[in-house]
Amino acid sequence: MSIHLPGKITQTLKHLKPSQWLILAALLHVTITVVVFLIGHFHLLPRTFDEHGIGLTFAIDSTTYRNVILDMAGTLNRNGLLSWPRIDGPLHCRLYALGFYFLGPVFGYNIITAESLNVVYYLGVLVFVYLLGKEVFNARTGLISAAVIGIWPSFVLHSTQLLRDSVSTVFLLAVIFILTVVLKRGLTYRNVLWLTIVSLLLIVLFWLARGNMWNIVIISLGIAALLLAVRMFVERRLLLTNALLLILVFGAALFVPSRIESTALSGDKPPTAILALPPQSRKFKNSFWSRLLLQIRARREGFRVYSSMASNVDADVTFNSSTDVITFLPRAAEIGFLAPFPRMWFEAGAGGRAGRLLSGFETLVMYLLYVPAIICAWRQRHNLGMWFLLLVGSVSVILLGLVVVNIGALYRLRYGFWMLLIVLAVEGTRMIAAGKAGARQ
User: Fold this and answer.
1) Are 78 and 109 found together in one domain?
2) Is 441 within a domain?
3) How confident is the model at residue 281 (pLDDT cuts 50, 70, 90)?
């Protein structure tokens, strides 16, 4: 009977509903978090994890954030829960502070307590990857894409930490999903009302959580507007409700940054948006291109002094003019899509060779996935949703290669955009498999 057990398990898994897959994913994430905590608690890998389960090399920001979260939780203990809205600091730290306030005395101030939020962020990412795959292609592609992301080793490991990556990725994928709906469907005025409210909330939350990546939101909106115009031209009809929703969201994206201050660590300058509607009391002194160039230079300078400088690439490159930026774009694409490069896979990093080997393996997998993604792009060239995912993912990866000189930071920041390309790769793989099956028949 045991011989047939794997086959029975496979058949059972095939018939699971998406909600049941989510339960399995939650159990997987909780299990991994507990394992990571135990490894740190018992000092099994003292150079990799501390006693709280926080990564010392691959999630170096977590230690700083934990101290901030502890201070916030202490403020809540002294002043009560009603003081939470007045606490100053990064949004994700403020959210974790609630978990530490309620659960810290029971489970300790570690990643076990943080799991109360981290598992929600992890499932949120999987849900929106599934919805994107389903909206652009079909439910099968969405489910497989979510499964691939759900077991992507470094993503899962990072999602157990006290980082802002997971929560900001959820907000970003949610915005991208709404824009995909605008491109693919016909909307009623009731749809516009609800989607506008949700979009406004997501835009505010993303700005608060990750204001230094705000340009990605503006670029996504611009690409969506261009593709919606293409759809209206091809279909020879005015999609007034779709256009109205896009205009409202675009207006909010230009309005929010100048009225709400993004959150940052104490002592750090809050991010600013280079494209926004400034209040009447404050006008931009420099042109848009001047502000863009200054922001790119400032971002590169920040990553140039990143803690793990051993993995810096082209850190000596500076941009003194827009021409310098344009001529560097091919190299930025190379870095964004292909880094870490093969020569780095076997070198010892700040945490030894294990991290480099894992990142090398995952990068090799992405090299292979780019092929079916390209095949999908060709065969689905009439699918505007596919173009949206491809353009947002590709342009964002190139921009990260332009700004981020530290490969470790690039690796984390790139997850959300790799996910969009993985959806295309999964559909492309299914097309290839279907073609081979048809040929055999």
Assistant:
1) yes
2) no
3) very low
